[in-house]
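Problem statement: downstream parser choked on a complex file, so we are re-checking the raw output for the protoporphyrin IX containing FE run. The parser issue turned out to be on our end (a line-ending mismatch), but while we're here, posting the original submission so the record is complete.
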Amino acid sequence: WQVVSPKDPNVPPVVFHWIPIFGSAAQYGHDPINFFFKCREKYGDVFTFILFGRKMTVALGPKGNHFVTGGKLSEVSAEEAYTHLTTPVFGKDVVYDVPNHILMEQKRFVKFGLSVENFRAYVGLIEDEVETYLNNDPSFTVYGLGDINEWGSFNALKCMQELTIFTASRTLQGKEVRASLDKSFADLYNDLDGGFTPLNFLFPNLPLESYRKRDRAQKAMSDFYVQIQENRKDEDHSHDHDMLAALASQKYKDGTPLTERQIAHIMIALLMAGQHTSSATASWALLHLADRPDIADALYEEQVKHFSTPDGKLRAMTYEELKDLPLLDSVIRETLRVHPPIHSIIRKVIKDVPVPGSLANPGPDLTYIVPKGHYILSCPALSQADPAVWRDANKWDPLRWSDPEGVAAQAFKTYDDATGEKVDYGFGAVSKGTESPYQPFGAGRHRCIGEQFAYVQLGVVLSTIVRRLEMKLDTPIPSPDFHTMITLPKKPCNIRYRRRNFD
Ligand code: HEM
């Protein structure tokens, strides 16, 4: 570890803290966004805080996002930042347990499975899962049995967690996983998930029962996926639309196929990558829709406009039609702006890295150096909530994305409040670029590959629910809980609902 002194002009300022090793863990863990806004006022866009002995250098704003997500392979490493959390959960030889060029090949294999052809098949399957859930889950008895005017209540997070795993397994994960969900698989999943927490990130090797459970569950789940592949050998599955079928056909550049074990571990990685991110997003979207019945009604009208049949029913949608629903798209986009499931993106510095002068320049000819051994961290959740960038930054307002004057004019401030001068936030501010202030799916080489799948899954889940239910909230929107890996709504997060008239 290099000693960081706030007096050294070459290293970023260190956030003041009372307890040496502990550092700013409490403030960061409790509310990272608020903590970073306060630090920015005091120290500027680049500063270092201490997190249980680790030196975390934060780079804020669109340029900070670029600094972290656009970092050079020779200078920063995602695998060194994440592997001790992910490898015990996903398993060996995949994702951050392999060199970056292998991860890039593995992402290409997964992209092959996330094809338009497969998405076309998924839309109907997801709708079917949601319908079945509404008809059968005890939370929705009022939906099935009650009088049309009777109001029931469901827990948004619990229901969205269940629906997310049901729909992901029915589509991506494959029918064997879907069939096992009611049995052993759910327990394995819970034990594995119990090992994917901030505690595991901070302390990889504690002698705790939850760590041992995680390891047992990883092995059992890995064996389960290997067994599915063995069982499939007797039949032709090459035309199946799930990821197991897609990965079975893939080869590394040197001609070697993926092993069954690697495929098993990629499947676990995908399960973990998509589960909390999508279920949190669906929960936040429903909570906001329940809070804004005017938007929920407009969403329902969008469905009626596109899908009503002569006999007054709503027909099934296709993948192409789903992609062409502007309000639905805006609801998801805006929910991911206000509630990005992943608030911090972290890399480990493996070679001293200079901070570009335009991002932080402590003197005329100086830039900071972030020393090897530090971590660098960008916070898309902050740039997505920055009043310097967004009008009414804290307001959930899906309409900002569909204003006829164009996204840039509506969603972003294009002028400086104080001077009235035009502000340029860089190329395509909402683009996929590393310098965008809007990065719920990250950017650069480690950018998410699950975005399109998430949009299909969220789009069908939300529209099917809005077709069936009217919703309202008796309480304010819950505050975010930052104590989990993924930012979830605090409990209770109950939504009141009743059936829509047309059923
Ligand atoms: C990477 C967010 C769903 C698979 C990422 C990253 C973010 C993210 C922020 C970048 C992490 C970093 O740079 O450190 C989300 C959100 C989702 C979502 C908000 C849903 C709303 C999914 C799904 C899958 C998936 C459904 C799989 C089907 C991946 C993979 C990576 C990734 C493989 C690449 C990791 C890397 O290259 O290092 N995701 N994700 N994600 N995500 Fe997602």
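For whoever reads this later: The pocket of protoporphyrin IX containing FE is lined by residues 78, 103, 107, 270, 273-274, 277-278, 281, 341-342, 345, 440-442, 446, 448-450, 453-454 (CB under 6 Å).
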